[in-house]
Amino acid sequence: MKITKAVIPAAGFGTRFLPATKAVPKEMLPIVDKPTIQYIVEEAIDSGITDLLIITSRGKDAIVNHFDKAAELEAVLERDGKTELLKLARGVTDKINVYFTRQAEQKGLGHAVFCAKSFAGNEPFAVMLGDDVVVNDEKPCLKQLTDEFERLGSSVIGVQRVGRENVNKYGILDCEPIGDRLYKMRGMTEKPSIDKAPSDIAALGRYVLTPAIFDCLEKTEKGALGEIQLTDAIVNLMETEAVYAYDFEGMRYDIGSKQGFLAATVDFALKREDLRGEFIEFLKKTVNKEK
Ligand code: G1P
């Protein structure tokens, strides 16, 4: 079955980026000149997603505005013949259907995903987390996972190794390798301590799930950090269905951390023909000054 629906939870407070996120949703912070959430939405489009639900909360209206048509701005740019800018202003609005719902209370990622129950209906769907930006110019991360889902007919979670020192930041898998880049899952623990981590294989913000996850989410109690965790619902799902993990190919940036955000900013600027030359000169001078 083709995966055409995706969910992006975007209801969190973004406290790691205060004071920037006091009035601006963290999903709207730009990497170079594009809001971070637009990179995720473009990955969804390039992976064949046609319908997208963004889970927002109070204070996130800028996200809703960003994916709306800016009719007045477009009219001015059209009148002035500014075709390139017009393309940028239009963005992705005519390439995907974007829907919104609000998570009234922040009870955790599992609770946010549960808000997508009627959107998903009886179909499998993707979950894409905004803190994980993945670059693969040949095959988008989500497409790698949806292809695996179509082959296996069971839920697939996107993973990569993160090193033992980082296991306490992620959902960590207990799994056995069964093929090229593919694992069968046995268990999963949300943000374990280094000594309790079953491996260093981490869920990195991309999931393709069967709708059975909603029954599991409904039964899931508060877990790590006092929140309803998607990780715990996936563990429940394993009792009734096989769940797989796929070690996706691509450079992944943890833009929920300041270092990751800076790394993405530098790398993305270096990829831009219009910025690259001057920016390299600037970086060389700055790095030499620091020596
Ligand atoms: C969430 C998930 C975690 C996953 C991580 C990937 O955690 O709960 O299992 O490994 O995203 O970025 P968060 O970063 O929201 O704390």
Q: Tell me, briefly, the overall form.
A: globular
Classification by helices and strands: alpha/beta
Pick out the low-confidence regions: none
CATH third-level topology = Spore Coat Polysaccharide Biosynthesis Protein SpsA, Chain A
Bound molecules: 1-O-phosphono-alpha-D-glucopyranose
Task: Summarize the structure in words.
- It contains 11 helices and 13 strands.
- The chain has one domain: Alpha-Beta Complex (Spore Coat Polysaccharide Biosynthesis Protein SpsA, Chain A).
- It has helices at 36-46, 61-66, 71-79, 83-90, 109-114, 117-120, 141-152, 213-219, 230-237, 258-270, 273-290; strands at residues 5-9, 30-31, 34-35, 51-56, 97-102, 125-128, 132-135, 155-161, 171-179, 182-190, 201-209, 243-247, 251-254.
- A 5-stranded mixed beta barrel has the order 8-11-9-10-12. It has a two-stranded antiparallel ribbon with strand order 2-3. A two-stranded antiparallel sheet has the order 7-13.
- The model has no long low-confidence stretch (mean pLDDT 95).
- By secondary structure, the protein is α/β, with parallel strands linked by helices.
- Strand 9 and strand 10 (182-190) form a beta hairpin.
- Helix content is 35%, strand content 25%.
- Residues 109, 129, 131-132, 170-171, 190, 202-205, 229-231, 256 line the site of 1-O-phosphono-alpha-D-glucopyranose.
